[in-house]
Amino acid sequence: FLGRRAWFVLHSFAAKYPDNPSESDKAAILGLIVAFGQLYPCKLCRSHLQQQLRDPELGPPRVGSREELTVWMCELHNIVNADLGKEQQDCNAFLVDLMYLKDCGECEVKKPTLEVGVEGEVMDPNYVGPWDAGIYGRGDNMLNSILTEGELWDARDLADLVDAMEVMKRWFRAFNKKEIKRMKEVLVKGGKEEREGMGKRLTEVVGKALEGMDKEGLWD
C-alpha cells in the first residue's frame, strides 16, 4: 500500500515538473529523490531502493526537463518492478502523462472567511513574502524575515558569503566559532539594514583575503 502511494507521489511530481526548470527546481527534485532513498519508511525497501538508484543503466536523475524526468522516473519504477517480478510499464512520455498529468483543481479548498484571489485561489492575509527553496532548505527561520524580492536577492548573496566563510574557517581557520555564529544570527534574525551592513563587511574581508592570496602568487 505504501509503495503504490509513494510511486503515485513521485510520478505526479515528475508530471508537474517544469518544462524549463530553474536551478532551484533541479535542486529541489533531486532533494526529493534523495530523501526517498535516505528516509523511505520501510527499511528493507529502502535498502533495495538505494541500490536501484545506483543502477548504472538508469543513471542519475534527468532533471533537465519535465519529459526527461517523467521518463527517468518510469525507468526507475521498471527497475523496481523487474526486481519484484511485476509487469513493465511503457515509458513513452505521452502514455505516462495520460496516467499522472492531472488537473490539481481539486486541491483548492475555499473558505468564506478568507479573501479569494485570482482563479478562485484562497489567499490567507498572513501569507506574504517570497519563496526560495535554497534559503528555506537551510533549516533555519531566515526566510520568515524576508518580505520582498529585493531582500531575497540580498539574502541569497549573504547566505553564500556566510557559507564561504564557514569553508574558510574549516580549511584555513580564518574565522572563529563566535564570528560564524554571529553571522548566522544576523542572517536569520537581522533586519534588512543589519544584513546589508554585514554583507558589506564580509565582502571587504573576502576581498582582502583574495588580494593577499594573489600577492602570494597562489593563482599562478
UniProtKB/TrEMBL annotation:
<dbReference type="InterPro" id="IPR036774">
    <property type="entry name" value="ERV/ALR_sulphydryl_oxid_sf"/>
</dbReference>
<dbReference type="GO" id="GO:0050660">
    <property type="term" value="F:flavin adenine dinucleotide binding"/>
</dbReference>
<dbReference type="InterPro" id="IPR039799">
    <property type="entry name" value="ALR/ERV"/>
</dbReference>
<feature type="domain" description="ERV/ALR sulfhydryl oxidase">
    <location>
        <begin position="1"/>
        <end position="100"/>
    </location>
</feature>
<protein>
    <recommendedName>
        <fullName>Sulfhydryl oxidase</fullName>
        <ecNumber>1.8.3.2</ecNumber>
    </recommendedName>
</protein>
<keyword id="KW-0274">FAD</keyword>
<keyword id="KW-0285">Flavoprotein</keyword>
<dbReference type="Pfam" id="PF04777">
    <property type="entry name" value="Evr1_Alr"/>
</dbReference>
<dbReference type="GO" id="GO:0005739">
    <property type="term" value="C:mitochondrion"/>
</dbReference>
<dbReference type="InterPro" id="IPR017905">
    <property type="entry name" value="ERV/ALR_sulphydryl_oxidase"/>
</dbReference>
<dbReference type="GO" id="GO:0016971">
    <property type="term" value="F:flavin-dependent sulfhydryl oxidase activity"/>
</dbReference>
<keyword id="KW-1015">Disulfide bond</keyword>
<keyword id="KW-0560">Oxidoreductase</keyword>
